[in-house]
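Hey all, quick one. A colleague (J.T.) asked me to put the 6-O-phosphono-beta-D-galactopyranose job into the tracker so the inputs and the structure tokens live in one place instead of scattered across chat threads. No bug as far as I know, just bookkeeping. Sequence used:
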Amino acid sequence: MSFKKDFLWGGATAANQLEGAYDVDGKGLSVADAMPGGKIRWATLEDEKFDWEIDTSKYIYPNHTGIDHYHRFKEDIALFAEMGFKCYRFSIAWSRIFPKGDETSPNEAGLKFYDQLIDECVNHGIEPVITISHYEMPLNLAKAYGGWKNRQLVEWYERFARTVLERYHTKVKYWMTFNEINSAFELPALSMGMVPATGAKDYTNIFQALHHQFVASALAVKIGHELNPELQIGCMQIFGTMYSFDANPVNQLANQLHNKGFNYYTSDVQVRGEYPTFQARLFEQYGVKEIEILDGDLELLKEHTVDYIGFSYYMSGVTDVTRKDAETVQGNLLGGVKNPFLEASEWGWQIDPIGLRIALNDLWDRYQVPLFIVENGLGAVDEVKDGKVHDTYRMDYLEKHIKEMHEAVLDGVDLMGYTPWGCIDLVSASTGEMSKRYGFIYVDLDNDGNGTGDRLRKDSFDWYKEVIHTNGEMIIGGEK
Ligand code: BGP
């Protein structure tokens, strides 16, 4: 058994990490535009005094210029087409369409840009996969309204979603409502527009904000399905396979609780259409007494569930509540203790292909809806030598993950597609650096914006082209 004939091989990006042109053609500022780049990013966002002011004398903002995809998208899409992409996942910068977020009519210049981008994909036979909101809400909604804890955002997101769904639904079948919605727990600045100064440390606000996003997401699903019932509209979350450090029931239980809260809470609501029965215990754990749910909200969640689960998978994590001195690790919003069986990337993310097979099986067994791996990949420092990048480490990472994806398909999982993250080098979300690269295509720019911006095919470019061309058989063939 192979991958499906119409398996969606492709790549993924987000507007704020590659478009650049942050103030061009009427675009307003987004929260991403106000986040300093470099290793200080997280500490700055965690600072009680951080108030979203842009200070170029103090910080760098690499995403203001990104890789200038805004002006070079034709060249980039042509390269994706050369690799044989079946689909391309990208996001629509909310503040290009509604610069301040609370306007009543959209910015036509912003819509025109995505007309062109979508047409470029379609003309190359590439299916667009759109994330409506990917860590780039209008800054004004964070500064003036306090982010997603404010109910008014539901109405403004609904207007944004309606605008883009109405405009593009005849050309775009696949959509996702919010990127990594469960990142709210760890990084509310990116996904909620909330920082400590505006209540991000109070979990009542976090759960309230999540409720607003669930309602907003259900409204987008409703609008999309009314326009065309065939549209496929998914949720999108981080999935981090979690292991208990040992067989101690105390660790096993802590691990199960972590799984429920982080990996399943949001998808339970968005796929099953109702809050899980463990909600009360979860609220207790986070010190939350109550959140406001308006009449009609729960019916809306029940009636407009998502068609598939999109998720990012980079690494797994380990739960250990018994050893106080255990060595800890960094990760894609998953910390935890070090797993002695795994190697880590240069940024400390623990590489675990088998964990992807486990993730796929767990999600499938729980929900029985199609799954779409919309992010996966290795962030690494690449070196250009004589005009070449020999990124064997990247091919090795991806190959091992594709093998496990296939094992999951053999296990009976319904897998729609695979879009490795940052198919072209772009600015990192967690550190705001260019030097953490994921792409098949190298972009000649450094953290300070120096470089030609030229695109260069890495060794993985031809490799991935062959993977797609053989529908994965190049990797899985001959083994079974
Ligand atoms: C995910 C985000 C992406 C992306 C990716 C890689 O969490 O959805 O936007 O950037 O992680 O992370 P990083 O860029 O921090 O390496």
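Adding what we noticed when we looked at it: The first strand starts at residue 8 and ends at 12. The radius of gyration is 21 Å.
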